[in-house]
Amino acid sequence: MGWLKWGIPLGLVVLLAAAFGGAVLAQREYGAAAASAERSGDEPVEDRISRSGVAYSPDAAAYPDQRIIEGLLDNYFDSINHKNYELWRSTVPPSKWKELPKGQWHEAYDSTRDYDIRVDRIDPAKDRSALVMMSFKSEQDLEDAPPEVKSRCVQWNVVYPVVLSGNGSAQLDISKLPNSSIAAPC
């Protein structure tokens, strides 16, 4: 009633009250959010790094079978970097062993070193398999470079199909790589 004495219309009083109430509510909500952010440090979440140095984005690290995939990728890249054919065989299906027997494998990978390995995303696929979207760099002698990119350093962006078995093991189905990778000189 006092507002009306001063000639302020009732609609304006309601509007001002709503605005003031909204401002108080916003301050309370944003203030709580700011306090929460201060408590959490408001820092970006860091990548998870595996024992072999493979980085996993927070999204990839949250994948339910990420630990199985991590072990597989660690073994796969360790096998190449340490020239361990038997370890490599444990990471791929038998069809790949037949395609690349030990002598040919050593010849193909004898100068290869993979690094800056990062898994950006892991998506579920059929039958408990997954698609791993990742990138890495590969250095090798020119004669060991892939035919499509004759360079000492190759930047790879790949989607690796991973088949997970019921016993908790996994394999990379790298036979599909020609259609699921992009390679460019570093």
Structural summary, described in words:
With 186 residues, the protein is an alpha+beta fold. The chain has helices spanning 2-5, 10-40, 58-61, 66-81, 85-89, 94-99, 102-109, and strands spanning 48-49, 55-56, 113-124, 129-139, 153-164, 170-172, 181-185. The protein is globular and about 40 Å long. Residues 1-40 have low confidence and may be disordered.
Short description:
With 186 residues, the protein is an alpha+beta fold.
Helix/sheet category: alpha+beta
Number of helices: 7
Number of strands: 7
| Unreliable spans | 1-40
Termini gap: 76 Å
Could you report the average pLDDT, rounded to the nearest whole number?
78
* Morphology: globular
How would a crystallographer describe the biggest sheet? 7 strands, mixed
**Radius of gyration from CA coordinates:** 27 Å
Pattern of helices and strands:
HHEEHHHHHEEEEE
Helix content: 25-40%
Strand content: 25-35%
Write the layout of secondary structure elements.
Blueprint: H1 2-5, H2 10-40, E1 48-49, E2 55-56, H3 58-61, H4 66-81, H5 85-89, H6 94-99, H7 102-109, E3 113-124, E4 129-139, E5 153-164, E6 170-172, E7 181-185
Parallel strand pairs: 2-3
Antiparallel strand pairs: 1-2, 3-4, 4-5, 5-6, 5-7
